[in-house]
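Troubleshooting log. The previous structure file for this entry was overwritten by mistake, so regenerating from the original sequence record. Sequence copied from the archived sheet and checked twice against the printout by T.R.
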Amino acid sequence: MKSLMMLLPLMGIAVFASAQPRGTIKGATFNSVSVPSDTFAFAVGDIYNYQSRFMQLNSVSPLTEKIEHLSHWAIIPTPIVPPFIYLVQLYGVASVYLPEQRRYHIWAVGDLGDNVETDNFMLEGNGLGWKQILCPNVGTPLTLNQPNNILSSISIGSDLDTWAVGYYNSDDQTNMPVALHGSVNKSVWVSVNIDAPVTFNGAINSMLKSVSVVDKNNAWAVGYSWTNNFDSKTMQRANYTLELIEHWDGNKWSVMSPPSDPELNSRQLNGVFAINENDVWAVGSETILGSGTYILIEHWNGSLWEKENTRLVGMLNGVYATSTTDIWTVGTGNTSPLSTIGALILHSSGSTWKRINNPYRQKADCTLNSVSGNSRNNIWAVGGWGGYTIAEHWNGFSWRAYQTK
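Regenerated output below.
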């Protein structure tokens, strides 16, 4: 029996326990994970604190955890915020090991705010603790409508060049993309102008959800845009979403043309990963009127963006690759609207996409929000299940669920 269990992963059959673990903190979810080495992985998210008779408002607090040597996940304490701040969320994390300094450098981004506005929120850490870093907000405060700033994602390039992206509310309350530039070598962040799509009706709502940095001369950011009015230029209908793809060439950010869509389906991108300047993957979802919402995978081949031929019900949230022949993407979904919608993991060797078994595949109300690794045999995926955190690890043969806090 023991020898058979050892052979099952080699045959492509996932092996996992019948009872899948999940975190113990109610209202918690992981939004992002980063894996800087074989030793550590870091995950960030938030905890929704439900209203009680002692609290006048529901509140959200940040959550950061780490795991060492595949042992157990442990909480990393975050800085205490003032009592009037009831909303603190973390959406993205990026980390790197600096061998010459024998330390880890970690960035986490999100937003914090009261019942009026939210500001960009950034933490800098070393794996033991965090400190809050001042970073610029975009937008002009108004008397009645304060600008909301949110950072959705952060990425560190091979040369330690770093970008954080998100969005803010402009003076006319239109969502606009934002990009902050920094480096591991210094804790100074500056806002950099980034293009936004426009129509005959003027600027439209746009937000960036994910960024991936190759180096100081090459970075990609993705998200989506929408308009509240019909646009005669693109034939874009009201509340129709269009994928937003931006590229940094070392001098400026530019909007890139997405794959053609004759059917004008609503599309949005939630995750991006750049293997190199000519090989970039982006994932999200596509809503087809009268049919449903399906996963969306797009690829940059160095010349143009192309849509992959996939037909699974659901949504993809994160993507990661160790090479051009080892690409992973995660989210939630199944083969048809009638099937249980659970955690979804897909893998590609560079040609076709294959669904991979995972411990949370048949768990309703379960989604994976992020995937990251540092080798073919060390990949983590994190998310949430029924109001609790989940994390699973790929060891080169199968996915295994790990207990989180």
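The chain is about 0% helix and 55% strand. Archived copy saved in two places this time.
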